[in-house]
């Protein structure tokens, strides 16, 4: 009885603590598919890189690499709001025959978030026999 009375007095003096659950953080979705106007003639690597435009300079925030035998290839990135900073997002996609080989086709375009993007790779003039690696690995 005394314990119950002490507990009641303690709760009366201290009060109850209410904790509201944290609201779920809404992520930013970037998804779509990469395709080419003509079929891929052999296995290839498709790299999809996502950049945030910060003070006029693209900053890499996410990337994915796929080994494919045919296109289209579907990609998806889920970003936290802190990652989406600056003036907007840019998407760069590239196709190469080997993992670190020269780029054969590419695309560079602004991102439309929360919609299904259609990325069309543009073949370089030397396609499918490009031999010079691009000077920049991340741009």
Describe the protein's architecture and organization:
The chain has 139 residues and is mostly beta strands. Helix content is 9%, strand content 44%. Strand 5 and strand 6 (103-110) form a beta hairpin. The longest helix is centred in the first third of the chain and has 13 residues, at 2-14. The radius of gyration is 25 Å and the shape is elongated. The mean pLDDT is 83.
Offer a quick outline of the entry.
This protein is mainly beta and 139 residues long.
Present the secondary structure layout.
Elements: H1 2-14, E1 28-35, E2 44-54, E3 57-68, E4 73-79, E5 89-96, E6 103-110, E7 116-120, E8 122-123
Parallel strand pairs: 1-7
Antiparallel strand pairs: 1-4, 2-3, 2-5, 5-6, 6-8
Features:
139 residues; mainly beta; 5-stranded antiparallel sheet; 3-stranded mixed sheet; 1 helix
Low-confidence stretches: none
Write down the overall mean pLDDT. Answer: 83
Question: What's the gyration radius in Å?
Answer: 25 Å
* Percentage of residues in DSSP E strands: 35-45%
For the largest beta sheet, what order do the strands appear in spatially? 3-2-5-6-8
| SSE string, helices as H and strands as E | HEEEEEEEE
């Amino acid at each position: 009885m005394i314990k119950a009375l002490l507990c009641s007095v303690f709760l009366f003096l201290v009060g109850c603590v209410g904790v509201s659950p944290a609201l779920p953080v809404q992520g930013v979705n970037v998804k779509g598919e990469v395709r080419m106007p003509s079929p891929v003639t052999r296995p290839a690597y498709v790299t999809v890189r996502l950049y945030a435009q910060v003070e006029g300079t693209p900053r890499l925030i996410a990337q994915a690499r796929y080994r494919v035998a045919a296109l289209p290839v579907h990609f998806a990135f889920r970003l936290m709001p802190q990652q989406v900073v600056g003036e907007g997002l840019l998407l760069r996609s590239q196709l190469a025959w080997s993992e670190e080989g020269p780029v054969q086709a590419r695309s560079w375009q602004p991102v439309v978030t929360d919609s299904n993007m259609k990325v069309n790779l543009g073949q370089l003039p030397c396609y499918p026999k490009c031999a010079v690696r691009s000077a920049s690995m991340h741009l």
